[in-house]
Write a structure and sequence with these properties.
TIM Barrel; two-stranded antiparallel sheet; alpha/beta
Length: 266
Amino acid sequence: MDQTLKNVAHRRFASTGKSVSVLGLGTVKFGRNQGVKYPEGEGFSLPSDAEISSLLDLCLAHGINLLDTAPAYGIAEERLGAVMGKRREEFFIVTKTGEEFKDGKSHYDFSAEHTRMSVNRSLQRLGTSYLDCVLVHSNRDDLAVIGQTPVLETLEQLKQDGRILSYGVSTYSLEGGKRAVDLTDAVMVAYNQAYTAEKEVIDYAHARGKAVLVKKGLASGHVNTLGDLAENIRFILETEGVTSLVFGSLSAANILNNIKAARDIR
């Protein structure tokens, strides 16, 4: 561990009463190497359990407690569940529902039955009695998913049952993002120096005290298209209303570089 690095800052996560790190580790690479848009392309080797465990230790050593996963990330949930062990309570786990990835393609189901099954399956896979946050994995038709399916109503019931502490939507549109803010605890939006089209959603959520997770902040690994890495990370995290930037990496060096970029962010 680099003793010269500060732990990353933490920010309040909506109505959960918990705080999360301003950087969150995405786990798609833990369980899926098909249909991804990373620079190394498809077919890269998935990490070993020991490698995943080491990355989790590295994150905790520097204050990163948010883990972002999903059923659509192949076997990522199962792998996290297998290696977290007693560290589970140290992490804030965000998973998703609505999208399934099978035979190299995404399939979507926002029915009440599938939502309940998905959450219960995630609980089992992750080896936990509750999930800190469940996001709806939208199919890009945000308003239809939010307004014409029972997914949010079902998640609210699961929240009342204590199986999830909060829920939200990973959105693609301004209208969908703002509607998600109105009806849920959290929203996930794409945002970086080169793409600020969803900034309005961040502002809207901030004004209403809702959590904002940022996806594609490092352009799915193509960060060289965004200019200086540290400058881009600071740009995102210094945007008022952003709760946490989620990034995926299997490289300890890359994780440490991101931590260095965020070290003075409060």
